[in-house]
Write a structure and sequence with these properties.
By secondary structure, the protein is an alpha/beta fold. It has an 8-stranded mixed beta sheet with strand order 10-9-11-1-12-13-2-14, sandwiched between helices. Strands 3, 4, 5, 6, 7 and 8 form a 6-stranded mixed beta sheet that branches. It has 2 domains: 262 residues, Alkaline Phosphatase, subunit A (3-Layer(aba) Sandwich); 107 residues, Alpha-Beta Plaits. The longest helix is centred in the last third of the chain and has 20 residues.
């Protein structure tokens, strides 16, 4: 029995507790869900009914006696805790080697050709908080026109520029130049345009015109597999950027989590056969990295309310799968991602309620399961759990 449409919604950074190897990443004790669930702003009755608090190891709130969905948690097998690595693994590709990071800034062999090809100088070149970076270097950038280049604990090359000093199209061109340079041993996961506005360090503000330029996935993903088998693929938010457009038929950018869910709900009216892959980045970008517990909790509450509308509009052959790509515990030290398990909540009329799939070895089990749900026979990383959670057809043709 196959689904017609599968919606995979990634709550960016919605981890549910630190992984056994978290000591290698400095993340022992991290637990994004536990941090936000204790906030007075947190209220997610729909995800609770799906089985969120019934997941193994989740003890920050009471579970329900009869979950309406199937549920579990997945460990990350890839060597990383960033957005690109996490999404690639969700899509069936495990990254055995970590992508390069630059705790001391980028070497001259990267910066020299970047300066030459962009025609602009470079300032900062350090790991930095994005908001602090424009506060500390924004005025110098406006005086000189030099680009603010910075990184983080993730494998990223970020370029901040004032929209009135460096027009958006030029900033995007500069990012494409950097992307072409940053290959091979310097192949960072993402080059990110970080435009901002304002008149001085007291009112500089990043705009919503961010754009990511990712590496092309080196192996086949579920998106490519689905497209090769003639199924439709829709990407909402950063999905198109994360996969460098590979295997995606239709894409739409978003301005916020709420906007992302509104556009996902609108796509429920499309009569497609395949996958709608959604990323809601505000959890991570706006609240996780800024260690805003109440903001993160409220964003979860707003999402859950929109999830209720999404559920009402689901068709009988629709399935929704809610998950994450890593953690970013707003109650933890520092401002970086955290190495955590991710939740998996699966709901729809074709899904058996109350099935605990336990703790799975890799995010890639999602890809294997999605392909299985849609009847695609393709061998990627991961092991499908569809047979465990699928309602079985009875002898009379009805469902059991």
């Amino acid at each position: 029995m196959n689904a017609k449409r599968v919606f995979v919604i990634v709550l960016d950074s919605y981890g549910v507790g630190y992984l056994p190897d978290a000591d290698k990443f400095g993340d022992v004790g991290a637990n994004t869900l536990a941090s936000i669930a204790g906030s007075a702003k947190y209220d997610t009755p729909n995800m609770k009914q799906f089985g969120l608090f019934n997941i193994d190891g989740v003890n920050c709130a009471e579970g329900v006696d009869a979950p309406i969905g199937s549920y579990g948690r997945l460990a990350e097998k890839s060597m990383g805790k960033d957005t690109t690595t996490g999404h690639w693994e969700i899509a069936g590709m495990i990254s055995e080697k970590p992508m390069p990071t630059y705790p001391d800034g980028f070497p001259e062999e990267v910066l020299a050709p970047f300066r030459e090809q962009t025609g602009r100088g470079v300032i900062c070149n350090l790991p930095y908080s994005g908001t602090a970076c424009i506060r500390d270097y924004g005025e110098e950038h406006m005086r000189t026109g030099d680009l603010i280049v910075y990184t983080s604990a993730d494998s990223v090359f970020q370029i901040a520029a004032h929209e009135e000093i460096v027009p958006l199209e030029e900033l995007y061109r500069d990012c494409r130049i950097a992307r072409a340079i940053l290959q091979g041993k310097h192949g960072v996961g993402r080059v990110i345009a970080r435009p901002f506005i304002g008149t001085n360090k007291d009112n500089f503000t990043r705009t919503r015109n961010r754009h990511d330029f990712s590496l092309i996935p080196p192996k086949k993903t579920m998106l490519v597999a689905l497209k090769e088998h003639g199924l439709d693929t829709y990407g909402v938010g950063k999905i198109n950027d994360i996969f460098a457009g590979q295997g995606i038929d239709h894409t739409v950018s978003i301005q916020s989590n709420e906007d992302g869910m509104e556009k996902t709900i609108a796509w429920q009216d499309e009569d497609f056969n395949g996958l709608c892959f959604v990323n809601l980045v505000d959890f991570d970008m706006t609240y996780g990295h800024r260690r805003d517990i109440d903001g993160y909790a409220n964003a979860a509450t707003v999402f859950d309310r929109q999830l209720g509308e999404f559920m009402q509009r689901m068709r009988d052959d629709d399935i929704v799968l809610i998950t994450a790509d890593h953690g970013c515990d707003p109650g933890f030290s520092g401002t970086d991602h955290t190495r955590e398990y991710i939740p998996v909540l699966v709901y729809g009329k074709m899904v058996r309620p109350g099935v605990n799939i336990g703790t799975r070895a890799t995010f890639a089990d999602i890809a294997a399961t999605v392909l299985d749900m849609l009847g695609v026979d393709e061998s990627l990383e991961g092991k499908s759990f569809w047979k465990e959670i699928c309602r079985k057809e009875g002898a009379n043709g009805g469902e059991e």
